[in-house]
Amino acid sequence: MNRLAAFRTSAIAAAALALSACGINSVPAAEESAKAKWADVEAAFQERANLVPNLEQIVMSSAEQERATLESVIQARASATRPEIQLDGEDLGDADKMAQYQEAQNTFGGALSRLMANVEAYPELRSQDNFGRFMTQIEGQENRIRVAIRDYNEAVRQYNTTIRTFPDTIGANIIHGAEPMIPYEAVTEGAEVAPELNMRSDSAPAN
């Protein structure tokens, strides 16, 4: 009886090891990691959007000439944060939805960068504490976005590799029905790179 019990225990352990080696645990673990990293990407973009009201107050009070550019930022922000383009964990394999989200975020980032470049040319603004603090905030936030995207793409790479390689691909296809996830790629070249905001410019706006 003791030998039979030991054999059963060994067989169960061997079966569990075989199952774990076939992606039973590794595939959902990799998937959840990628979903968590995507949540970080969305949070970073949302934090950037939350900074716009502060910029709006600075521009409206100090740079009348840039209100038209500010309006484009506000419109792009509204587009980038509208609910229908937001992605949840189940959408990360949808290339069309990812492209739509990326395009909206890149449009918003481009409009914001143009406004910041224009407003920064005003010496009276650069001397204000609130503008300096905002510049520091937006620089930091763009860097956080870049890091979040990098981490998400690495998690997607690991997940996609897991579901395609033996033996994990067995569990991925037979048990989980796993599909590849879409990495975050810039719609326009260089759009995934945080903009460099030059705070040392002494040029004045053209009349």
UniProtKB/TrEMBL annotation:
PROSITE patterns given in the database record: PROKAR_LIPOPROTEIN (PS51257)
Natural source organism: Qipengyuania qiaonensis
Signal sequence, renumbered to the chain: 1-29
Annotated membrane topology: Single-pass membrane protein
Subcellular location: Membrane
SUPFAM superfamilies referenced in this protein's UniProt entry, alphabetically: LemA-like
Keywords from the named record: Membrane, Signal, Transmembrane, Transmembrane helix
Keyword presence, Transmembrane: yes
Protein name: LemA family protein
Primary location group: membrane
Domain of life assignment: Bacteria
